[in-house]
């Protein structure tokens, strides 16, 4: 905290519910009540939450179209000692929501930025999906155009961590189909829909199974979605396929065995010892 301005205010980044209005912390309510201003993505939306809790703090719209323009004004107010809260329409600001530009600018000005944690759809979904949660990759929204979407999915096809996507009702069917095509239809996956709301549904199946089940039920295509897909199986560290043998042969034609095996291990992620053994076999047969 060395360089932080002493008399400046605090920018609180406050998580709000993703559906059920009860999902807000006592601390978040306290902050929203006591700051001088709430910077909100959509003020009409946030007014409902504030009215529910009898909070009358003034609101200012800060969304992706005006965030840059309005940041200067907010920084000045913070520097003059005002405390400001940043909220999104739902969940945690900056998680597939505006706020990055403001938070970065506040940090660059050495202003205090304080998190008030709470709901985020990615974490809520992961906590109930029944998929490995020790490592996950949050991908947010996939591109809306199919070619770009499939290209992104191809890049993720070998990732071993659980993949987490946000999706809207417009694209849920198309995206699930592309995931099945690009990641493999047999992979285990979960569709978490309308979390914490009246029509909350959590479906677990193979990707192929989910494609069919969601396509067959118009109700399952409505609302907000988190899609989670089990990661690719970790590559067997000693499984040396034909392409790897060919690569080793090429490397061995230019390099000593130890160096060739080391390089092949770096490229493939396979065990150096296994590649050394394979290299010996190649040399013996030559
Ligand atoms: N900032 C939010 C968060 O912390 O999760 C995310 C905002 S992003 C603009 C909106 C997307 O989040 C939705 O399209 C959906 O993919 C996901 N989402 C938000 N609320 C959800 C809910 N209640 N159930 C399922 N997905 C939800």
List the defining traits of the structure above:
286 residues, Methyltransferase, Cobalt-precorrin-4 Transmethylase, Domain 2, 5-stranded mixed sheet, binds S-adenosylmethionine, alpha/beta, 18% strand
Question: What does this protein structure show overall?
Answer:
The structure is a single chain. This protein has 286 residues and is α/β, with parallel strands linked by helices. It folds into 3 domains: 10-119, Cobalt-precorrin-4 Transmethylase, domain 1 (3-Layer(aba) Sandwich); 122-229, Methyltransferase, Cobalt-precorrin-4 Transmethylase, Domain 2, CATH 3.30.950; 237-285. It has 11 helices and 10 strands. The chain has helices at residues 26-34, 43-52, 67-79, 100-108, 121-128, 146-156, 172-183, 207-215, 242-254, 257-268, 272-285; strands at residues 10-14, 37-40, 59-61, 84-87, 112-116, 136-141, 162-168, 188-193, 201-206, 224-229. The strands form 2 sheets. A 5-stranded parallel sheet has the order 3-2-4-1-5, sandwiched between helices. A 5-stranded mixed sheet has the order 6-7-10-8-9, with helices on both faces. α6 (146-156) links the parallel β6 and β7 (162-168). α3 runs parallel beside α4 (100-108) and α9 crosses α10. The protein is globular, with a radius of gyration of 25 Å. 31% of the residues are buried. The model has no long low-confidence stretch (mean pLDDT 94). S-adenosylmethionine binds at residues 18-19, 88, 90-92, 95-97, 120-122, 166-168, 192-197, 224-226.
């Amino acid at each position: 905290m060395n360089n932080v301005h002493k008399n400046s205010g605090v920018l609180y980044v406050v998580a709000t519910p993703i559906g059920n209005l009860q999902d807000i912390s006592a601390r978040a309510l306290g902050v929203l009540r006591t700051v001088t201003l709430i910077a909100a993505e959509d003020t009409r939306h946030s007014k409902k939450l504030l009215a529910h809790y009898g909070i009358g703090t003034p609101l200012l719209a800060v969304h992706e179209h005006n965030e840059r323009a309005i940041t200067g004004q907010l920084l000045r107010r913070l520097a003059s000692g005002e405390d400001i809260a940043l909220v999104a329409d739902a969940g945690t600001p900056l998680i597939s929501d505006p706020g990055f530009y403001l938070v970065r600018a506040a940090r660059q000005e050495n202003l205090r930025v304080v998190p008030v944690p709470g709901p985020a759809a990615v974490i809520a979904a992961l906590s109930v999906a029944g998929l490995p949660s020790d490592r996950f990759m949050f991908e947010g929204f996939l591109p809306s155009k199919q070619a770009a979407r499939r290209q992104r999915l191809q890049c993720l096809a070998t990732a071993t961590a659980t993949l987490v996507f946000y999706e809207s009702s417009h694209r849920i069917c198309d995206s699930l189909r592309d995931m099945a095509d690009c990641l493999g239809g047999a992979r285990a996956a979960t569709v978490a829909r309308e979390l914490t709301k009246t029509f909350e549904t959590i479906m677990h199946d193979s990707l192929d199974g989910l494609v069919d089940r969601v396509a067959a039920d118009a109700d399952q295509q409505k609302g907000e979605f988190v899609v989670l897909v089990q990661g690719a199986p970790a590559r067997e560290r000693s499984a040396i396929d034909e392409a790897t043998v060919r690569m080793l042969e090429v490397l061995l034609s230019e390099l000593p065995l130890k160096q060739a095996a080391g390089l092949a291990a770096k490229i493939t992620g396979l065990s150096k010892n296994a590649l050394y053994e394979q290299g010996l076999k190649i040399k013996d047969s030559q």
